[in-house]
Design a protein that fits this description.
Elements lengths: L12 H8 L14 H12 L4 H11 L4 H9 L5 H16 L8 E4 L3 H10 L12 E5 L26 H8 L3 E6 L16 E2 L3 E2 L15 H8 L5 E6 L5 H6 L3 E4 L22 E6 L2 H9 L22 E5 L4 H13 L3 E5 L9 H20 L7 H10 L1 H4 L5 H8 L4 H22 L3 E5 L4 H5 L5 E8 L5 E7 L5 H15 L10
Parallel strand pairs: 2-3, 2-6, 9-10, 9-11
Antiparallel strand pairs: 1-3, 4-5, 6-8, 7-8, 7-12, 11-13, 12-13
Length: 508
């Protein structure tokens, strides 16, 4: 295996001060780095494929469900190789082009070869995600594609093995199509860093309207699903990194519950906070995200079966958080009542966010140091080396500054306080659900995802069309820890009456 091209230097106090005061460009432009390189790779892979044929497949597959796509394959309307080529074609035409969305940071060189293998083994009995193109966040390790988390220091880093979640996808026959651009280092670089911006690839743009926000960390993954650049995506989040982009792009996002913080993601993630980071799935429907999720769990007992029974909400108590669009909330209240649920307004939630910044910063320093040690690269010890490396070419490597990195470097470890803080968060939420006697909590868009995401609660977002200002509208649903099956079934039932995606129709 070739050695990763990682370059480091040491940092001193002068460098740290300079990093804090580095001038920031607060005007987000359409930064798109090395897209010509990605476009060239795509061109080579697509050589020999007929545009007319790919366009035909594009028209019949666009915005379709996993089940529908597999049905079309079963009927031999196309092969998995052709389907994969079609997604590469869309990436080249809509994403890696002038005025493109810039959601893809790199493409897999073996995607078409893997699809051919899937075709060779196909006997018309396979289903699920077999042969389907999946995009994964670029902070999830893939041995055949560089994994950078959007930071230039790791631009050429190729892990020795795939992350556990990637291994599971491959075992089930999925095609790892590409890596998605993301907010660099999950946003832990600077407060001025725009969502969806990385120093490796630039700014990911919203395909619904390029002047709108892309939400959060897993921006590229959500764009890939919304713009039909892949069948589904695997994102990551710490405090809303999957759900916020899902809201912004009018797709369905799901993050599962976690009872043991150390097992949130398993092996193979460039961390923000190893106790809080989690994997999430992004798709076009509740059924699709359930299918994706079921292919990531370890046992059949963990899988979620969706029932078509209409009584999933009968007699359930639903808390409705009142801070949000009142028109949307009233619509949700009406639909809940029609489905047999009892709702009650919730004006306040537990206050537990006072020490979260300290918790995140403290653990980020330790998490990254631990990760760098695993790379076994000489002189790469931790944050100080990353900060110093960025200072060598600040306009390229930290265009918006790196004050968060510096602050994290200066924070003193406080593992006891951190443990207490995390326990307080979970205990406060559990007590809230019990005291209010509610089975679910719903709120508009992403107003609570940052806070509740830190508690490890299962959360689901369902698109609800547009707000008055034209931007996407979504309902977010939260359940107690361990109630993933109930949440997905409740969400499936509710989605039948409220889901309305805002579809990508043109490049604005």
């Amino acid at each position: 295996m070739k050695k990763s091209k990682i370059f480091v230097v040491t940092v001193g106090a002068v460098g740290l001060v300079a990093a804090v005061h580095y001038a920031r460009n607060k005007q987000v432009k359409r930064y798109n780095y090395h897209h010509l390189s990605v476009a060239s790779t795509l061109s080579k892979q697509l050589k020999g494929y007929e545009v007319q044929r790919l366009s035909f497949i594009e028209q019949i597959v666009k915005n379709q469900s996993i089940d529908t796509i597999q049905y079309l394959r079963h009927e031999d309307v196309f092969t998995y190789e052709e389907l994969t080529a079609m997604y590469l074609y869309r990436i080249s035409r809509m994403d890696q082009c002038d005025n493109g969305t810039n959601a893809i940071i790199s493409v897999a060189e073996d995607a078409l070869a893997s699809a051919k293998i899937a075709d060779d083994s196909y006997d018309h009995t396979q289903g699920g995600i077999y042969g389907l193109s999946i995009v994964v966040n670029d902070n999830i390790e893939t041995k055949n594609i560089a994994t950078s988390a959007g930071t230039v220091l790791l631009k050429y880093y190729r892990p020795k093995k795939d992350a556990a979640v990637v291994e599971k996808l491959i075992e089930k026959g999925a095609i790892i199509l590409a890596k998605a651009n993301l907010t660099e280092l999950a946003g832990a670089v600077d407060d001025a860093l725009p969502a969806g911006y990385s120093s490796v690839k630039g700014q990911t743009l919203n395909p619904l309207n390029k002047s709108w926000s892309v939400g959060g960390t897993s921006a590229g993954s959500a764009v890939a699903v919304a713009a039909d650049l892949a069948v589904g995506a695997i994102g990551t989040g710490t405090n809303g990194g999957v759900l916020k982009p899902s809201v912004a792009m009018s797709v369905v996002g799901f993050t599962p519950s976690v009872t043991d913080k150390s097992d949130r993601v398993g092996d193979g993630l460039i961390p923000l906070n190893r106790h809080l980071d989690t994997i999430g799935v992004i798709g076009r429907s509740v059924l699709d995200v359930t299918e994706l999720y079921n292919n990531l769990v370890d046992t059949d007992a963990q899988k979620v079966g969706i029932t078509s029974q209409k009584d999933q909400l009968v007699g359930k108590q639903v808390g409705v958080y009142t801070k949000g669009d009142e028109v949307g909330l009233n619509y949700v209240r009406t639909r809940l009542a029609e489905l047999g649920a009892r709702w009650k307004n919730m004006d306040n939630l537990p206050q537990f966010s006072q020490s979260l910044d300290q918790v995140l910063l403290t653990e980020f320093k330790a998490s990254l140091k631990n990760y760098f040690e695993k790379l076994s690269v000489p002189h790469l010890a931790g944050l100080e080396d990353l900060i110093a490396y960025n200072l060598q070419k600040p306009k390229q490597r930290v265009r918006f500054g790196q004050s968060k990195l510096v602050k994290a470097f200066q924070v003193k470890p406080n593992t006891v306080g951190q443990k207490v803080s995390l326990e307080i968060i979970q205990e406060a939420i559990a007590q809230f659900f019990n005291a209010k006697r509610i089975d679910y909590l719903v709120f508009m868009d992403d107003v609570l995802t940052a806070q509740l995401g830190l508690a490890g609660l299962p959360t689901l977002t369902i698109p609800m069309g547009r707000r008055a200002d034209g931007k996407p509208h979504s309902l977010s649903i939260v359940a107690p820890i361990g109630k993933d099956r109930a949440l997905l079934n409740m969400g499936y039932t509710l989605a039948k009456t409220i889901q309305k995606r805002v579809l990508v129709t043109s490049q604005k």
